[in-house]
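Trying the structure run again after the queue cleared.
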Amino acid sequence: MALAGNGLMFAIGFAVALKPFLGAKTETPKHAHEGPILLWLGPLVLAGLGLISALLSGVSHELVSSPMSTAVLGEPVTVTISTVPHIGLPLALSVLTVALGILVFIMLGQGRSTMAGILAAIGWGPDKGFDQVMRGLTRLSFRVTNIIQNGRLDYYMTATFVAVAVAVLIPMGLYDEWPAAPQFPRMPFYEWTVLLIALIGLGAVIYARDRLTAIVSLGIQGFAVALIFMLLGAPDLSFTQFMVETLSVVILALVMTRLRLSPTDHRPTGEKLLDIAVAGTCGAALG
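Done. Tokens:
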């Protein structure tokens, strides 16, 4: 397969590089002219450097090939390839590849006609097959997009949190890296009181009858968390939490007064249970 593939690439390269310059001159839509010097100067310099490197193989191997091979293999390597061919299997395969490429190039016209006749006879081929695959891929992408990106923000959020939970929990389960159970230290009564206020605020958010009550309850829970930060010796986090909770409650309250929203949550019980499960799983994974 490698031999056939290289022979065909050889023939294609010759067809692209030599075919336009062989045969009778034909009229073109525009006047043909030589390219500017900058168009062929780059390939000329590259080909010249390649020829010089081949003729001065000892110097090029010492400066380029041997250091590159040493860096790749991690051990000292000396490259001794020269311009004089070594008789053996590699040379035989190279000669056979070149001969196959020349043969295909000579019979290129007949090969194209034969291939066109085969494709016309079977009615289907690589070209039409590629078109069918691309058409099917486009249809599949439309259907997947309609499912994944359907314009529902709650679907996007649910998928995001599920992906976060899976990315955190599955590696810990596969490699048995579960964290140890937390040990609650002895806390004074006022710290338990603040923690109880945070839990009450969280419960109020869940069971709030309208969104404005939920926003105020969320602010209570946030203020309790800020107090916990302060009691545990993190005044910088506490100050940031106070500012965030104050601004978020005010901004959300102002936004809610401008929107026409249903005062209650009309979601079915199954959807609420799914959201609770996703939120609890993410909380457990990140906790």
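The chain has two domains: 2-15+41-131, 189-286. Worth checking whether this holds up in the mutant runs.
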